[in-house]
Design a protein that fits this description.
The chain is mainly α. The protein has one domain. Helix content is 87%, strand content 0%. The protein has seven helices and no strands. Helix 4 packs parallel to helix 6. The model has no long low-confidence stretch (mean pLDDT 88).
């Protein structure tokens, strides 16, 4: 009961950071949709298309359950690492978490511009788990950045970091695990169904 209350209190302390992150992410989606940073995103998409051609070759060599496991581990580890970086780099004035939110939101907006608004529907099944975890990690990083800016005698950086890492382990990782299961399943399903 005590740990649950601590978690609830900590999440409550993040409410303004989470609101800021959501607004920043939505703004980045709008900027991406309007075409800002299109050159960077189009180069990334070209690289991903080349990578996906190699993945199609694997579908002929390996059964779908091996592909599912491979996709799951790549997606889960990538998202877990990104969220971990959002948390631990927060004390560096929140530069990485802010950059991460702008780039990811911008990429989503740019994809919607290039591929159509159905991109948002494709994100919903796994995004309803992944995005809250991601927003939480950025918010924790920003809270840590705010802690660094306090006068030294008021600063509680170590306590705030430990609390953030507890939330990462108890809430963010399980959400990312579920999101990776869903996303991997949808990717393998789409590979099998699309000729």
């Amino acid at each position: 009961m005590g740990e649950e209350l601590e978690l609830r209190e900590y999440l409550h302390s993040l409410r303004f950071y989470i609101l800021f992150v959501c607004i920043l992410f939505a703004g980045a989606i709008a900027m991406g949709y309007m075409g800002f940073l299109s050159e960077i995103f189009s180069e990334s998409l070209a690289w991903l298309e080349q990578l996906s051609e190699g993945v199609v070759d694997f579908t002929e060599l390996y059964p779908s359950w091996i592909l599912f496991i491979a996709f799951f581990f790549v997606i889960f580890l990538n998202n877990a690492f990104t969220c971990f970086l959002n948390v631990i780099t927060g004390p560096l004035l929140g530069i990485f978490p802010l950059f991460s939110a702008v780039i990811n939101g911008g990429l989503l907006g740019w994809l919607a511009r290039e591929e159509g608004l159905l991109v948002f529907l494709a994100v919903v099944p796994h995004g309803m788990f992944e995005l809250p975890a991601y927003f939480l990690s950025v918010a924790i990083g920003l809270k840590l950045a705010h802690e660094v800016l306090k006068p030294r005698r008021e600063r509680q950086l170590r306590i705030t970091l430990v609390e953030g890492l507890k939330v990462y382990l108890r809430l963010i990782l399980p959400l990312l695990f579920i999101a990776a299961l869903i996303e991997s399943g949808l990717i393998v399903l789409s590979i099998l169904l699309v000729p």
